[in-house]
Amino acid sequence: MSCLMVERCGEISFDNPDQNAKCVCMLGDVRVGGQTGVPAERRGSYPFIDFRILNNTAHSGEIGTKKKVKRLLSFQRYFHASRLLRGAIPPSPLHFLDEDYLGQARHMLSKVGTWDFDIFLFDRLTNGNSLVTLLCHLFNSHGLIHHFHLDMVTLHKFLVMVQEDYHSQNPYHNAVHAADVTQAMHCFLMEPKLSSFLTPLDIMLGLLSAAAHDVDHPGVSQPFLIKTNHYLCSLYQNESVLENHHWRSTVGMLRESRLFAHLPKEMTQDIEQQLGSLIKATDINRQNEFLIRLRDQLNNQNLRLEDAQDRHFMLQIALKCADICNPCRMWELSKQWSERVCEEFYRQGHLEQKFELEISPLCNQQKDSIPSIQIGFMTHVAEPLFKEWSHFTDNSPLAENMISNLTRNLAKWNSLQHTQPSSGGGSSDSNSNKINDQTGQGTENEEQTGNEGDTP
Q1: With 0-12 CB in 10 A as exposed, 13-18 as middle and 19+ as buried, what is 357?
Q2: Tens digits of per-residue pLDDT, 253-302?
Q3: CB 31 within 8 Å of CB 219
Q4: CA 303: distance to chain centroid?
Q5: Binding of AMP: at which residues (predicted)?
């Protein structure tokens, strides 16, 4: 593997006429506002760093491997390396825990179970530490620290690692999104239909998977990585590439922080495997697979939450709902998320256009308008899933609130689309077809209910 990595880094150069090599080289640049210049610390500028990491990992034994595995595959490793090469000392992220709970932030945490929780405001009040602050609070309020005998400083260290491995340059896939998904997951775990069956392990897995489900996301899609021959695609054989990377990165941070070092080995292995199953369930290409299985189990009334496998499946569904719950938030919050995700799409499209690649679906700013993208996503992805979730909860107040918000937001986007000039943006029907292709609707085997080996 070392030889392959060194060869890969050696081949990537802006003097290389190969367009795909250039695109892999520029992958990190899409996260810095689409700037056209090449920063000095661009990933790939220091190929010897890859060799040093791989060489040290290969000869440092099990302990060294655990400490290096996260950085080995990280999209950030050159960023961290270049800071050290410039002599800059990263500021210590370990702040006093009590500081995050003062004033308005503490007041907001008292309402963390309400659906209108404003994660953007909370992130500002915590000075950009929304994910760490939220998880520390939830682990404490759910009694997880006491139940699993967790060391608070070690927990905080791990959460800081997770938060820092998100890229703030991404308009959408950043630590604020992770905090938003975690807050939504907390709300779903409190649903009466589910909460009475959950064990402390279920709750911890739900919160951890939500917090880390997009860690180290590069701000581009899996198809982009595939067509630019990114090494992660070879590593994971083009299957749930990003989700596998998020999971493996999370495992690396768990081992490096030694958060669960005091637990039995069998238990830590089970935690790691279940986290993988949960995080990989967020792959949008598997949307139809999970929707069909959920609908069948609800219609046949054979969902038994006393059974660990059925509970795990509902945790997967809860995480999928939390991951795409933006259309179900109140308009003021939902609109911000819609604009952010489309901005990230457009940045990828600009990068593809720059290197004369085919622009990915939903990424053409000249043809794919925000209203049309949102209408297609809400109609064909969000609405079907949340209707089944509402069915599962017996139309709980929270589920009714989410469906009501989704209906109002969809009407607003339809209204905005009709007020746009006729020459701007693609039609919602066109974008609906693109979304259907991405989510597997109409292409998946209707009898398929799961991938072997995914659910423990």
Answers
A1: middle
A2: 999 999 999 999 999 999 999 999 999 999 999 999 999 999 999 999 99
A3: yes
A4: 27
A5: 173-177, 214, 323, 374
CA–CA distance, 255 with 62 (Å, rounded to integer)? 11
Enumerate helices (H) and strands (E) in the chain, giving the number of each: 24, 0
Side-chain-side CA neighbours of 272 within 13 Å: the count stands at 19
- Rounded CA-CA distance 158/344 in Å is 27
Least confident of 46-50, 60-64, 77-81, 417-421: 46-50
Amino acid identity for residue 267 in this structure: M
Q: How many residues does the chain have?
A: 456
Q: Which amino acid is at 238?
A: N
Which domains does the chain show, CATH number per domain? 111-418 (1.10.1300.10)
Please give the Cα distance from 189 to 202 (Å, whole number).
9
d(CA 181, CA 184): 5
For the annotated binding site for AMP, the residues are: 173-177, 214, 323, 374
173 classed as catalytic: yes
Q: At what angle do helices 175-189 and 152-164 cross, to 10 degrees?
A: 130
Q: Count CB neighbours of 420 within 10 A.
A: 13
DSSP state of 357: P
Give me the phi and psi of 435, to 5 degrees please.
-65, -40
Under 8 Å between Cβ of 50 and 9: yes
Q: What is the pLDDT of residues 148-173, one digit of tens each?
A: 999 999 999 999 999 999 999 999 99
List, as residue ranges, the binding site: 173-177, 213-214, 323, 374
DSSP string, 100-150: GGSHHHHHHHTTTTSTT--HHHHHHHTTT-HHHHHHHHHHHHTTHHHHTT-
367-404 core/surface letters (b: 16 or more CB in 10 A; e: else)? bbbbbbbbbbbbbbbbbbbbebbbebbeebebbebbbe
**Cα angle at 4 between 26 and 454, to 5 degrees?**
85
Strand ranges (E), 180-296: none
Sign of the four-CA dihedral 260, 264, 269, 275: negative
pTM attached to this predicted model: 0.78
